[in-house]
Amino acid sequence: FDAVTQQRYPEIERLNHVHHAGNSSGVVDGAAAVLVGSAEAGEKAGLKPRARIKAFANIGTEPCIMLTGPVDVSRKVLDQAGMGVSDIDLFEINEAFASVVLHSMAELGLDHGRVNVNGGAIAMGHPLGATGAMILGTLVDEMERRGAGTGLVTLCIGAGMGTATIIERI
Questions:
Q1: Calpha distance 34→37 (Å, rounded)
Q2: DSSP string covering 121-168, please?
Q3: Domains of the chain by range and CATH?
Q4: Per-residue DSSP letter, 22
Q5: CB of 50 within 8 A of CB of 144?
Q6: Would you say the C-alpha torsion 8, 9, 15, 18 has a positive or negative sign?
Q7: How many CB atoms are located within 10 Å of the residue 135 CB?
């Protein structure tokens, strides 16, 4: 794959692979669920809503570079919602590699005190197929603890794809 990348980007003299066990998420098992429904269905079932989806977006980025997805999808979902970075109280950038989170924070101008405040994928693990529900749940829990109103979550999908959701606490 290095040869393909260097063929596409001849200006890159050498690829430095910097992802290792110390800055990447572990391979873990996990399970989670999110219950999504209308206010009427929740009321009928006796459930109290905790948050609502304000906006969501999906993108694809160049797969050879691919680790810029959270930046692009965050900008897209913020634009769709008519919001800016300053309108979001907490961010969950769910990525397997620390460099992706750090790059996203730098590009979006995010304060460390608002991003992955309880850890993120490296601290909590990154069980495929469960992280979306886990991170949304973690975000809602922390929003309730802090009395925060809005949160933005991005999810690692792989191969340059990205998805993001903005939620509002009810």
A1: 10
A2: HHHH---TTTHHHHHHHHHHHHHHHHT--EEEEEEEEETTEEEEEEEE
A3: 2-169 (3.40.47.10)
A4: T
A5: yes
A6: negative
A7: 26
Q: How far apart are CA 39 and CA 17, in angstroms?
A: 48
The two tokens of residue 4 are: 């393909």
Residue 23 three-state SS: coil
Predicted confidence (pLDDT) per residue in 60-119, tens digit: 987 777 778 899 999 999 999 999 999 999 999 988 788 889 999 999 999 999 999 998
Q: Tens digit of pLDDT for each residue in 30-55?
A: 888 899 999 999 999 999 999 999 99
Q: Are 156 and 126 in contact (CB under 8 A)?
A: yes
51-60 vs 161-169, strand pairing mode: antiparallel
Residue that the structure tokens 């590009």 belong to:
107
* Consecutive H or E run containing 81: helix 69-81
Cα distance between residue 42 and residue 135, in whole Å: 22
Task: Give residue 113's Cα distance to chain centre.
Answer: 16
- Which secondary-structure segment (H or E) carries 10? none
Residue 47's nearest CA partner among 60, 32, 34, 56 is 34
